[in-house]
Amino acid sequence: MRTGNFYSLVFALLTSASIAAIAAPNGRVDVENGPVAVAVASSPVSDKVDLNTADAITLQNELSGVGEAKAKSIVAYREANGPFASVDELLEVKGIGKAILERNREKLETN
User: Which end of the chain has the smaller Cβ count within 10 Å, N or C?
Assistant: First the structure.
């Protein structure tokens, strides 16, 4: 009787070990059917906001002290007067003062 129980336990142990081995994920990646990497040509990424291309939402989200109204004013000024020649020209926009300009100077560029 003990031999029968022993063989039953060994069988159960081997069965559960083989099921675990089958269910375990394979550690290697099949190169032929694996993930495909795609090369993308990219231009240098700048973390600055371009006053001449940014929309009102970007200006509002990226600039400190610039809400919806000031962001729309910046876009309206650009549409009425053409592209900004320099970051300092932002002072010409109604509602933008020296404090806001200085707070955001490092984030701004004109291309």
Answer: N
Residue type, position 89, single letter? E
Backbone torsions φ then ψ of 59, nearest 5 degrees: -60, -45
pLDDT at 108: 95
Q: Is the pTM of this model over 0.85?
A: no
Cα(34)–Cα(58) distance, rounded to whole angstroms?
A: 38
Neighbour tally for 58: CB within 10 Å:
14
* Residue 103 near residue 64, CB atoms below 8 Å: yes
